[in-house]
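**Sequence, structure tokens**
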Amino acid sequence: MKLFDVYPINDITIARAEGSYVWDDAGQRYLDLYGGHAVISIGHTNPHWVQRIETQLHQIAFYSNSVRIPLQQQLADKLGAVSGRPDYQLFLCNSGAEANENALKLASFHTGRKKIVAFKKAFHGRTSLAVAATDNPAIVAPVNETGNIVFLPYNDEAALHEWFNAHGGETAAVIIEAIQGVGGITVATDAFLQAIRARCTQHGAVFIADEVQCGYGRSGRFFCTDTAGVDADVYSMAKGMGNGFPVGGILIAPHIAPKHGLLGTTFGGNHLACAAALAVLEVIEQERLLQAAAETGTWLMEELKAIPQLQNVRGKGLMIGFDLPPQLKTLRAKLLQEYRIFTGEAKPAVVRLLPALNLGRAAAGEFLESLRAAIASLEREATPAHL
């Protein structure tokens, strides 16, 4: 049987990992500044995380949500404390797409409305509603197409106000990534997030903060929208939530009431997932990783801004992007093949950095040194030899 060939992959087999480094099956070490799409939040094979999962595995790995699972309440308590939202409610699922799917459904159930506002270059996942709210026609199947989603320009307050003036009474929700990841590390302004909050409140719509990639401490705050001083009605989470163990969830404001059968999942909130997620929060809290991400990210962005060939360095915390000029279009490939450094990309020419929140200064310095060397090498290669 063949694997269904839908992923463009690098011809590298990672055999083991630790902290911010991975090793291939030939023993070659790589610096990981991508973390498998921002998933690795507390470092590969973090010892506390491994111990938490291993201990739980010897007790019970899974039972369904038809029985009481005390780990779920422990996770809810810890998440409420670390995120600063102890009065919110937690629904656990398995992935970011599933989190956004449930967030959008919940908003429609709560309001009795159908219209959803999303934004240009948004990426919210590949399940039915999540992909319908994703601004990439290439991955929206005909069955996913719907007239209930509108895409407005990102950071355009006038367009937002115009929409609500005309359709406020029909709008179930606004969903936004405070930093667009796949969209190219585009950062929402505080004023724009505040405008979304104001218009949702005014018209009874649900404000959904998609924090799947930009949340869970990556921005230097627990939720990226926290920098604007606003509270969303629903926060979707996944990626860094489990440090590689599949887990997702939504935090739901207290004014949105649950009822039996409204949402459901087989594997969401299972014992192992809760153990992994608790370990992540415990490490974030004990190692003060929100502060670490903020401080390391600020320093790293300043260093990147000092490299003249890089354009439009932006981001928050350890979610950083920069644009490449045409002469450096192969920079990511050179960093991987010659300098053994994993980075991410966004089309057409954006490099994305999404390392573990406990990325050390020495490792960050190693990246900067290699980055400068790679740029210099590409520039030499582009210069015609003099006869």
The radius of gyration is 21 Å.
